[in-house]
């Protein structure tokens, strides 16, 4: 049942090397300013920094006090205030700003304009990659998505390219690079340029194939509600940098607890990829096994007991603790989802993915908005509707937008502009004849029939890229056939059998064909920008490890799907992402309703 | 997923009941501080530092002054510099003169905010629209949108030129960003005035309506709040300032229900002004009156007279939804039962009745379906001597009914 452990799986590269490299570089930078130091840390860097170098190590290098700075855009301004305040107080200190992962000209410009350029030294800490788990590497750049796809700011392209270069220099050259998306292309070019400057290492590569994919190639997947365990935990509790905070409702005490969620947690690693419906059965069985293991102690003699305490007890207690935690989490998630009418929400999502009973879906979304259920969820559903239907009908767009603004605030006008710009929520450019006919017919019949007629007309007139893609790639399994979630037969299990993630399907197909041959129709529907390059020959074993880089974020559902795919194909995927994402983070990055 | 709930309970029981005989030493459990952070982590250390500061031992953290202060430093150019590139060392005044005369000029050297604004003010002072526009284009490229708009707010003429420029370029998004500036204005009166000033901007037709609504809404909210203050009729803990329209409507249905359409605070006025759909209105009013347990008001929401003059119950939202909302507001079973009875769809009606324990409806439904077995099953869920139990008994004993099973 558990997908993660299987015989004959190729060994994974050791990514702790990356942590050590980052740590060593940081220590080097700290030692540039000998003596007692106070360290001011950008809030977003706290968690990643914690994974690299804990307080003990910092103290070992004469770091005295640690401060957290919340207001990122004004980090540099705050710094100049600090410098000026010190001047006024007659206090002499030396200052250093360490930019990570890299320094931008804009930062130096601000220092110059604020008149403190001469008072401070600046450095770069090339902390590009944080390993979140054995097979997940993150650039911890959530801003990548908005900066690159909405603002058109390409500042992070070289960062991504540098991350690839780092991987290549530590783990060996890639032999094949596939990709799709404008940003993927730029990152590839950037990486190539960086490689030309450096030396060529000749060591055996640990992974030969790399796949680069832009987030905007597949917006549907991150907008769907997640139902694999790790995805649900992320949706409901927000996993940050590989750890999550569980509140009193989970711990059944009055305390909260922060835990790391990765393969070190033996219970978690077995349920993380499972569809939620399988989780309870598994935890239940584990609890029984645990009890049996504990019960072994009766009837043990002193010798056996001693051995038991020395070898097994610690592990059992650990398992007991983790089991309680995950059962608590599952219970909490169940409660929350039942309260939200999760069943009905999923039904609507599945209908949208399938293209079935769209009018009913719109009614559902309308009521969701009217009842002010959740600002982000209402938006999410609107976007899902728009993408699957290739845009909303004009009258639906205007009506739903008006209702949304009424329910959640007119200040969301700018959010709608952003979503429109990205193609996440837009109006159909329907033909003239269609609208005229609709309004004529509409005058003759009552509301319900108009809705059905609208559906019929719409299906004639529009070109639906998602629908066409979905058909071409068989993303939505035929309804009517029973899908056994206990023995999943394909990647669709991550969405209860309703939908295979488009991004993962593309990866599957390209790897199978060793390129894009035969997929011209598909790439056309995705606006092209696909590429496949052979860099060099490589040893066979490295062929079984594939690096997939998501530019703009990746969801846990996609990671679970790729783990499943890997097992099917006899290979392992390493996921590199600019950041872990989900529907909330994706949409929050596009909100513009606050100062 | 529901069927797995029992498994969950079972596993929970199993885990909690695992008996541990001796209380072994707490060897390797990760030590966690009171705030939930692992001891020794950086987040924990920061919290420790912060709390020691709060206890007054260290100087407080310097406050961040977010407004760019113009007086802070000098401009980014030097009059006395003997640069070969003479053109770029001109003052704002000289630069504007050159621009007016069509001579070559360079704006790149105006890097600091202060210089940029001097340039703009100078352009405005000579009343040359062409020059103003040229400067604005430069500013648009070299200043963040937020700062540009903030400065333009204080300069009418420049703003008008900018708007004109935007009209020609059709940049809706920039207009919206200007509109967004209202969020930086804390005082509601000034914010209302700012929104009013946005009304003349060339938004798209739809967006213009929304901005108009926004202004009208805030204007009314200010008045409603002021009145509430004066009359002290209603608790002040919930302020409706800057709340969305629907929230305002809810507030109105809560505190001002039944007021005449003439007052800004009445639900009917809000409904009309903001063109709220019947469906939305009923949903909101239902929520508010149900919360107050005004079942009579709830009832009136659904009354309509048919063409014969008889009162009928009608709802633009399904009655199963109405029941759901009533239930969430802890409506008594008698009330729930009334609306469950109104559900059209027989399956929804039965499931609703079962869910909310409307015994009479359940019994009547099974009776109408002539389903004897289900009645027997249902009877077992009831209390022995309750009227419902006896009702079932009577039905079962009724020889005239032709049961289907």
From TrEMBL, chain A:
Q: Which domain of life is it from?
A: Eukaryota
- Any matching Pfam family: Sec1
- Cellular compartments per GO CC: late endosome membrane; lysosomal membrane
Its placement in the membrane is given as: Peripheral membrane protein
Q: Report the subcellular localization.
A: Late endosome membrane; Lysosome membrane
The answer to whether keyword Transferase applies is no
Question: What keywords would UniProt list here?
Answer: Protein transport, Transport
One GO biological process term is: vesicle-mediated transport
Family statement drawn from the similarity comment of this UniProt entry: Belongs to the STXBP/unc-18/SEC1 family.
The UniProt entry, under PANTHER family, shows: VESICLE PROTEIN SORTING-ASSOCIATED
Q: What is this protein called?
A: VPS33B late endosome and lysosome associated
Please tell me the species this chain comes from.
Cyprinus carpio
Organism ancestry: Eukaryota, Metazoa, Chordata, Craniata, Vertebrata
TrEMBL record, chain B:
Which processes are annotated in GO (biological process)?
intracellular protein transport; vacuolar transport
Q: Name one GO cellular component term.
A: early endosome
| InterPro entries in alphabetical order | Spe-39 (IPR040057)
Q: Which UniProt keywords apply?
A: Cytoplasmic vesicle, Endosome
Q: Where is this region: Disordered?
A: 57-77
Q: Which residues form a coiled coil?
A: none
Q: Where in the cell is it found?
A: Cytoplasmic vesicle; Early endosome; Late endosome
- PANTHER family in UniProt: DEFECTIVE SPERMATOGENESIS PROTEIN 39, SPERMATOGENESIS-DEFECTIVE PROTEIN 39 HOMOLOG
Q: What is this protein called?
A: Spermatogenesis-defective protein 39 homolog
Tell me which species this is from. Cyprinus carpio (Common carp)
